[in-house]
């Protein structure tokens, strides 16, 4: 089954930011793991950026991940035994320096829970799970990167004509993302052009909202969903929508922080109409306009 196949390649990379606590990110974001290498200073960079590394012809910034999320930074003595996790996220290659690598493990993303209140205000954690009876915290890499490399304000505010705005305004739009920063970006983009929308923070809630709206005779016209979500991910959500007759009316736009042709290809396999590497507001809005065109053509057929 297609929806099962799309989930098989997404494991978790477990690593250490402190000497005791294990953290993780999804393996789809990871390109490579390398031992620490000397870095070149980057003038006027963010305090958590230690410098730049040149790896296989690519020059990329390296962030002390522990410091970035509020833990003690790595000492000079610790650098020798540290590792750099190279990620491909938000259309950029970035290295994250960590104290140690545990391993890559298979993961049932349906078993990842919301972070408990005992974690306090650690906003960089999007979920928790247990591996070998130990708590593992799943980090929100997008949020971390948005703090270190803030988006260009111009990329967050779409430009469209009054006629285009009126095409979108009557449509019922659902935005789905487990990342707080991504939800804020999506909301700001639509708020800036006065387009109403609904929000879900995970795939399960989104599917229930879609079913409830369809049952009430007011189905959603456009679904904009992240791909890499714990629980019901974007691939599975798209598959369920396309294979449920009362929901298949929706125009599905999947978006991902992964700069990967594979993600885009899989998105089309499960029935999504479009797949975008997030986040660029004008790209998103024009995808929605294409959805509006399709929705209107079906309604008038």
Automatic annotation (TrEMBL):
InterPro entries, A to Z: Chemotax_regulator_CheV, CheW-like_dom_sf, CheW-lke_dom, CheY-like_superfamily, Sig_transdc_resp-reg_receiver
Domain Response regulatory: residue ranges: 172-293
Entry keywords, A to Z: Phosphoprotein
Modification 4-aspartylphosphate occurs at: 226
One record GO biological process: phosphorelay signal transduction system
Record domain CheW-like: where: 9-150
Gene3D superfamilies: 3.40.50.2300, CheA-289, Domain 4 (2.40.50.180), SH3 Domains (2.30.30.40)
Keyword Disulfide bond tagged: no
Superkingdom as given in the UniProt entry: Bacteria
PROSITE patterns documented for this protein: CHEW, RESPONSE_REGULATORY
Pfam families in alphabetical order: CheW, Response_reg
Keyword Nucleotide-binding assigned: no
Protein name per the record: Putative chemotaxis protein CheV
Organism in which the protein naturally occurs: Photobacterium gaetbulicola Gung47
């Amino acid at each position: 089954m297609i929806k099962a196949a799309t989930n098989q390649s997404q494991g978790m990379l477990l690593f250490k930011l402190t000497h005791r606590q294990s953290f993780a990110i999804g393996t789809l974001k990871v390109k490579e793991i390398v031992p620490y290498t000397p870095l070149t200073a980057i003038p006027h960079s963010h305090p958590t950026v230690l410098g730049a590394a040149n790896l296989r012809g690519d020059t990329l910034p390296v962030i002390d991940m522990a410091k970035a999320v509020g833990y003690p930074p790595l000492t000079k003595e610790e650098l020798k035994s540290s590792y750099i996790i190279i990620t491909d996220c938000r259309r950029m290659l970035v290295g994250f320096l960590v104290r140690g690598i545990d391993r890559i493990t298979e993961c049932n993303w349906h078993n990842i829970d919301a972070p408990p209140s005992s974690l306090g205000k650690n906003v960089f954690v999007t979920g928790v799970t247990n591996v070998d009876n130990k708590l593992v915290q799943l980090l929100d890499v997008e949020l971390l990167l948005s703090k270190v490399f803030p988006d260009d304000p111009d990329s967050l505010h779409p430009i469209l004509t009054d006629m285009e705005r009126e095409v979108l305004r009557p449509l019922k739009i659902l935005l789905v993302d487990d990342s707080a920063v991504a939800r804020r970006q999506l909301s700001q983009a639509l708020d800036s052009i006065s387009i109403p929308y609904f929000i879900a923070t995970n795939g399960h809630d989104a599917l229930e909202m879609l079913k409830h709206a369809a049952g009430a005779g007011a189905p959603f016209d456009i679904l904009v969903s992240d791909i890499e979500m714990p629980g019901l991910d974007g691939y599975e959500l798209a598959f369920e929508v396309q294979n449920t007759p009362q929901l298949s009316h929706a125009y599905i736009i999947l978006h991902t922080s992964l700069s990967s042709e594979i993600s885009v290809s899989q998105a089309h396999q499960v029935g999504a109409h479009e797949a975008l590497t997030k986040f660029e507001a004008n790209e998103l809005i024009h995808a929605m306009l294409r959805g509006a065109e399709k929705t209107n053509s079906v309604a008038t057929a």
